[in-house]
Write a structure and sequence with these properties.
Elements (H helix, E strand, L loop, with lengths): L18 E3 H12 L5 E5 L2 E3 L12 E5 L2 E2 L3 E2 L4 E2 L2 E2 L4 E2 L2 E2 L4 E2 L3 E2 L4 E2 L9 E2 L8 E2 L13 E2 L4 E2 L3 E2 L4 E2 L5 E4 L4 E2 L3 E2 L4 E2 L2 E3 L4 E2 L2 E3 L4 E2 L2 E2 L4 E6 L5 E2 L2 E3 L4 E7 L4 E2 L5 E3 L4 E7 L9 E2 L4 E7 L10 E2 L7 E3 L6 H8 L7 H13 L3 H16 L4 H14 L5 H21 L15 H9 L16 H30 L1
Parallel strand pairs: 1-3, 2-4, 3-5, 4-8, 6-10, 7-11, 8-12, 9-13, 10-16, 11-17, 12-18, 13-19, 14-15, 16-20, 17-21, 18-22, 19-23, 20-24, 21-25, 22-26, 24-28, 26-29, 27-30, 28-31, 29-32, 30-33, 31-34, 32-35, 34-36, 35-37, 36-38, 37-39
């Protein structure tokens, strides 16, 4: 990856020191840029006034290290080989449409007015305390201490241990940012939210152990998004419609109160890790997302009602500790609007792993879940099908009912032999065959019409006939449902 070229070989000494005004610093930069120096380096300055390097093209790299700026720095449309503001203190850095051929470094830089009051980003419809941000930012109105809208960085954007403390809702405004390397944000601290909508990062976004008030990375493209190992957000993290080529991971992350939530609708990524440090304070939305592998943890699933899974497509589920199929079904039902498609997706994931039994269990649970929303008659019929043979997913239960009813009928008629029809019968009496003939509604065995039960025996015979028809009807209905949905 590109590095900060020429930094070590640049001239370290300058004619400026102590407190200087912005115009003097700007004049020094222009003068030294004409001397073919590779790095224009200044350290430990205190700069008064507003430094403006707008719409300029510098041929040398610029390093303003450990400097204190009393007024915002304006680098709008500056073009420079590389830029280092590490260790500096700035009220704001306005660098929209900045063009850097190499790295932009803001390591241990401090930005903002110093007010570190948390400003978590929340949904407009949420009741949680915090800034209710509109669905799409009005860029001409919104302000923030660090502005990089439409900026292009040819190397890495290094913002490790950057601190943004400001009373505004946005700490970083960088829509359509282009970074041809990676974003390194380990230990970044921002009391407001980061706006990275439609950013293009050639490699990865690394936010290990970062602490933010939220992230809007809707539409971002990168090879990896690492918000893990102590990452913390008190507001929403939006990865809607993002395209990530490798992994999105929130391993050991904290989505904290008051509005810590994760919205990944229409996310596309091969591997998604949601094994957080603890359950999120808010929602987890995976609606219409598509991943190959989902890694999660039962102990950090969102609360019931705070999960959205409809349309979520995945091939395989992974957990550090095994999760039973019935426990996994409870994960589905944490989505209050879960439908048949979510159950079928889970069943297919078990099938692809060769676990047909778990797939049948999921589909059985699907029928139970759907039956709860039927009218009273539908719920009763569904309960009957569930008891008799598990909606077609427990066929042995139907056989058990058949044998049980046949055994009960056989025991009864063994001691209560009905008289033959017409007073005489050419058939030998067999209570087992007679009971089976009563139970089987279609193909007769010739025993039902040969005997004429009376009294209690007639009631037992009617019970067996009705049970046989109900059992057969339920089995046929269940078979049609299974075949149709299969």
């Amino acid at each position: 990856m590109p590095r900060f070229r020429g930094l070590r070989r640049g001239r370290r000494g300058t004619s400026l020191s102590g407190t200087v005004d912005a115009e003097t610093l700007e004049a020094s930069l222009r003068a030294r840029d004409g001397e073919d120096e590779r790095v224009l380096r200044y350290e430990g300055l205190r700069v008064t006034g507003t430094l403006r390097l707008t719409r300029r093209r510098l041929g040398a790299a610029v390093a303003l290290v450990g400097c204190v700026f009393e007024e915002p720095v304006d680098l709008t449309e500056l073009s420079v080989p590389s830029l280092d503001l590490s260790g500096s203190v700035l009220p704001a850095l306005h660098a929209d449409r900045l063009a850097v051929d190499g790295e932009l470094r803001l390591v241990r830089t401090r930005l903002g007015d110093g007010v570190a009051e948390p400003r978590p980003m929340t949904d407009p419809s949420a009741r949680a305390a915090g800034r209710r941000v509109p669905r799409r930012l009005q860029e001409g109105v919104a302000t923030g201490p660090l502005r990089l809208a439409d900026a292009r960085i040819g190397g890495n954007l290094v913002v490790e241990e950057l601190t943004v403390a400001d009373r505004g809702p946005w700490s970083l405004l960088a829509p359509r940012l282009v970074v041809e390397g990676s974003i390194h944000g380990r230990g970044l601290t921002a009391n407001g939210a980061l706006y990275l909508r439609d950013a293009r990062v050639t490699h990865a976004v690394n936010l290990h152990a970062a602490d933010t008030g939220g992230i809007d990375a809707t539409g971002i493209t990168c090879t990896g998004f690492y918000a893990d190992w102590g990452f913390r957000s008190t507001g929403q993290v939006l990865l809607r419609a993002a395209e990530v080529g490798g992994v999105v991971t929130f391993h050991d992350a904290v989505l904290d109160g008051p509005a810590g939530s994760l919205l990944c609708g229409r996310l596309r990524v091969p591997r998604l890790r949601l094994d957080l440090r603890r359950p999120p304070a808010g929602r987890v939305v995976l609606q219409d997302a598509a991943v190959d592998v989902l890694v999660d943890s039962e102990s950090t699933w969102p609360a019931p009602g705070a999960l959205s899974l409809e349309g979520f497509v995945y091939q395989r589920l992974e957990t550090e500790r095994p999760v039973g199929v019935r426990t996994r079904i409870t994960w589905l039902t944490r989505d209050p609007r879960v439908g048949a498609r979510a159950f079928e997706q889970l069943a297919k994931s078990y099938e692809s792993g060769g676990d047909e039994r778990s797939a049948r269990t999921v589909r059985h649970a699907r029928e139970r879940h759907l039956s709860r929303n039927d009218r009273l008659s539908g719920r009763i019929w569904g309960l009957l099908q569930d008891v008799l043979f598990g909606y077609g997913y427990a066929p042995r239960r139907a056989l058990l009912w058949l044998l049980s009813l046949a055994a009960v009928g056989s025991l009864w008629f063994a001691t209560h032999r009905p008289p033959p029809v017409g007073g005489d019968s050419k058939r030998a009496w067999d209570p087992v065959l007679y009971s089976l003939d009563l139970l089987i509604p279609v193909a007769g065995l010739g025993h039902r019409g040969a005997w004429d039960p009376t009294g209690a025996s007639k009631a037992v015979a009617v019970l067996l006939i009705v049970s046989g028809w109900v059992l057969a009807t339920a089995v046929i209905a269940g078979a049609r449902r299974v075949l149709g949905r299969g």
